[in-house]
Amino acid sequence: MGKTIFISGIDTDAGKTYATGWLAKNYMDKGLSVATQKFIQTGNKEFSEDIEAHRKIMGIEMLPEDIDHTTAPIIFNYPASAQLAARIDGREIDMSLVDKSRETLSSRYDILLIEGAGGLMVPITDDYFTIDYVADRNLPIILVTNGILGSINHTILSLEAISKRNIKLHSVIYNTHFDKDKVIAEDTLGFIQRYVAKHFPNSEVLVM
Question: What is the pLDDT of residue 90?
Answer without folding.
Answer: 95
